[in-house]
Amino acid sequence: MSDVTFTRQPNCPELYYAQCNGGKGSDAQQVAYLLPAGTQAPASFDLAASWSGNPYSIGCYFFLNTPIASGQETAFANSAWIYLGMPGRQGARFAWISNPNDQVDPFDGPFIIVQSAAGGGFQTGRVSQFDFRNITLIIGPQCAVSVSGTSFQITPPASAPNTIYLQAEWGQSSLNIIDPVGITIPCCPPASGCLQFSADLQKSTDLAAMDVGPRTFYLNDQGWLKDSPKADPFWLTSIRYQVFQEIAGTLPLYANLDPLDHLNVDRTYFGLFPPSGSSPAPQLTNYTTNLGQGIQLTPQAGARLVFQQNPVTSVSSNEDAYYLAPYGSFSVGLTGVSAGASLSLLCGISGVEYLSVTAGSIISFVSGQPAFADGFQPGAAMPEAETSLTDLNGLVTTSWVFAPSVNYYAQPDESVLHNSGQGGLKGFLQYLPVIAGTLPQSPPATTPPAFPMLPYYNTGQSLADLNTYNELELQLFSPTRRQNIFEITGGVTASTGGSGQTTGWGVTPQGLAASVGAGIWSQLILAQDIQGTQLSFNQVKDLPNYPLLSALTVNQLFLVISDPASVSSFLSQASVTLKGTASGAAGENWVLNLSPEATGPESGKLLWSEYNTILVFKFFDRSLKDLAQDTGAWSQGTSFNSDPQATSNLLGKIIQDETDPSFVTAVNNKDWNGIIVLNVAIETIPRDLAGLMAGIDVSQFYCHHLGINVTPATIQGSAPSLQTTSMFGLVHYQAPHPMQNNGFDYQFQVQSLQALFQNSTITQFSSTIQLQINTLFGEACAGPDHNIINLTGVLQDQGYAYQTVGDSLFTMKSRVLDTVDLARGQFVTLDPGGAGKPTLSSFLFWGSMAFQSLQAAGANFDVFSFGTSSQSGGLSFSGLSIDMSSDNPGDADFAFDANHISFDMATTQSRPDSLFNHFPLTLTGLTQSATGSAPASQGFMSVTNALGQSDLSGLWFSLNFDLNLGSLGALASEAGFVASLILAWAPNPANYSVFIGLRLPGSNGGTQRDIGLEGVLTLNFQNIQLSYQDVTGVGPSYVLTLYNIALKLLSVSFPPGGQINVYIFGNPGSSGASLGWYAGYVKSGSTSSTKKAAALGAGE
């Protein structure tokens, strides 16, 4: 019995199913044998008996891609008889049916007509055509048909060997390449019903005609309606990558074609490995080493070319062509290189991204991988959308590569690591290979099965073609390959398993120095600041979720990091110091905090999260502006950003700032390469500016960008030698809203602050701060701009300075003060605080204060003197301050301080009829009372006056004067007899609260009106009065009267039995520079009027 047995089906006596190996082993139900209706035949028979020599050797062999459903046997037979009875099909002995259970439509499929041959046997009766879309297998007439074991054999006539041939390019090319042995049709699995033949492809012409090589597809702009939804159909364009060099010579093929299952790689393919098992010849490919040597690939068992769809639109169609992509394993070789020799197989277009293989290493092609470059636009400066690889729901696929048990090396082209290895030219660094991962024996089930790796030795024929290949590699294949390899390897290298044994220092041409080990960099120096502190990544390796080493070692590097957790293991305690002044002395600098672990002292949130910090490495030949929008070009974008698209949108907003010319260049110039950190936390500001923090919203106060122009480094001995890195940056703070008067006495806000840094040093500084003043001298006031004063900050040689921009005149809501004119002011930080101490600052003012001209009983009594009728002058002062302390940013406590005020009498103006203008007074200062104090406690005796005396015990202020009374001669211990006069007032919007006090030398003050003379003598008086008189024809006069003066020795008074009053007055007709006085005596009991005494000199 033959190895193929046909067995009758009970439900249809004319239908037989094939079984192989006598029913034991593989079932062959997809092969059916159908006799004409009513034909009698045994219950079973073998293949040879079914073919010839018997009355029942007249049936048709049906090859089915799915078994006939149970119970549908008769229905199938009826449809099949109709199919075989159609014109042109009579005599068909072989037919291929795609769905034997479809009873709605008539069967359709290829067939072969067989007839008896003139010399005996059988032959094909007419042309049979097997279409594989753009590739067709033609079997001409008069080809001998016979049974051979478990298969049928179709052999062309010796006189016409090209009767069996291939057509390509939709019939435009005829390829007479099929072996004269002809075609085999097996009846047993795994190739039952397939057409098998051998062919020798002419590489110079037939590879292109058969469309051999991977393809990449992208949108054809000519057929895309910009306003149409993306789901609508659109035209496709694709480019081919030539795997095998299309040169003279042949490529042997061993075809196995299933007319019913074109895309099944197990049943339809052009094999490259001989079925006999003999060794195939190596084929020169367009893969190369990093030295430009062409790689040879030798097919291994199972290596083949398989069909992949080549559509012209985004909608699948049976009219679409196929192309052939490599599949299976190949060994790597190089002409003239023996087995085991090391080779560097390029993965793309970069010489520093390669697989380290040996002659004989295996690489495998995996078909069915995504081939549509979504968002890609050839020649566009920037893709309109994110670029990514998809398969358009399985429509467009291609072959990728997997290489078992080899090391993968990758570095950025713009940042290739070098070191001072042995054997190089003196003074030159040598290339330092860096392993980025070791591929396992087979990819884990949870990872991508392969990665894109395309041949580039012989690609496009025009510059436009070359640019397209280049753009696709940089935008899509390089980052996708890196991502897939990372997922496959998990970041592990074979030599260390990730332990990272240090092999030495390597340096990029741009200055990034790295202490390199296998699978780990113990340190990667990003910058060195003005203090010699290095900003570094430490212990750089690929963690399970954060593949930093892989991200850094790509040939075109654009790494965006916004997730602080993704980098916290590598970048901790990171800070950068920038010069705040030209000298950069301690306390004058700006310190930025880049640590992803740092938290805000107030919010407790990670500063990276609070400020949306983004760290960007840009070593790419596209502009940062373009790359910011193309997340498909980001290295490991999904690993270092929780939401890459949201980060992209934020990047797009941040980089719009054009304040810093260096930043504009970094953003827009594709040739700029370096590192930029966006939205960086500010750790310390110069001590001169520390007080500003009391008026800053810290949630909005950060460095807009810190740019690092990578500085070249050299290797000195075994360590890197780095110069100070040139950095640029911008602090650009704007208050969330303009200051609004909140009704409090004082309020402080930094309205704006801008600091520009170049070459790690501040070059420009501008700022505006605002102080709200609703109270002066304890009383409400009204000034310009809603009582808000603006001060502008500038950078000077000696540091930072803030000054007012104009005069601010405040009208006092007071019964004593009229106006306070703050003509000039400045802001200073007194103590930057820290270590539990508050920050202390002060607003210092220069200006003038004008008092009201007070009246008593309708008469003038202008004791406060200073001011003019025009409000343009008064008592000129300096040193008036509003002090501010702050324990936390945004919080401030204020204190009005007039105790350190001083006066400029040269510019002071007093009214003509005032006390100061008619009394010999010298203004010595101003007193602001301490809490709970009163003038009497400071030794001042109450002076009766027409205004009345108020009890001042809370907050009060006083103008302090010296009154020189001359000399008391030998009676006094002091040579000069100088009294102190104060004019005090307390805040009282309803009425004035005034106190005039006098303190004489040697007096006890308060209610005790005694002056000690020579120890045992006491000068006593009972009352003091200040009065005003308008002397007719002369002018106003102010008189200070001391009543009932007596000289006491023990209990004896002089003069006895009388009263002496002393009158002190200024010259009523001129300024108060001179003093006059006289005494009057009244004897006790006298009824006469007071007698005027002669004027006496002091001591007389």
Helix-strand layout with pairing:
Blueprint: E1 4-9, E2 12-20, E3 27-34, E4 44-46, H1 47-51, E5 60-64, H2 73-85, E6 92-97, E7 111-116, E8 122-124, E9 128-132, E10 135-139, E11 144-148, E12 151-155, E13 164-168, E14 173-175, E15 183-186, E16 195-202, H3 206-209, E17 215-219, E18 236-240, E19 250-257, E20 269-271, E21 283-288, E22 294-299, E23 304-310, E24 321-333, E25 342-346, E26 354-358, E27 362-370, E28 372-374, E29 388-390, E30 397-402, E31 407-409, E32 418-419, E33 430-431, E34 435-438, H4 463-489, E35 502-507, E36 513-517, E37 520-528, E38 534-540, H5 548-552, E39 557-561, H6 564-567, E40 575-578, E41 590-593, H7 607-611, E42 614-619, H8 624-629, H9 637-640, H10 644-654, H11 661-668, E43 674-684, E44 702-709, E45 714-716, E46 719-721, E47 726-734, E48 746-758, E49 761-773, E50 775-776, E51 779-782, H12 784-787, E52 788-796, E53 799-804, E54 808-812, E55 817-831, E56 839-851, E57 855-856, E58 859-860, E59 875-886, E60 893-897, E61 902-903, E62 921-928, E63 941-942, E64 944-945, E65 957-964, E66 978-986, E67 993-999, E68 1003-1005, ...
Parallel strand pairs: 5-6, 64-71
Antiparallel strand pairs: 1-2, 1-4, 2-3, 3-5, 6-7, 7-8, 8-11, 9-10, 10-13, 11-12, 12-15, 13-14, 16-19, 17-18, 19-20, 20-23, 21-22, 22-24, 23-24, 24-27, 25-26, 26-31, 27-30, 28-29, 31-34, 32-33, 35-36, 36-37, 37-38, 39-42, 40-41, 41-43, 42-43, 43-44, 44-47, 45-46, 47-48, 48-49, 49-52, 50-51, ...
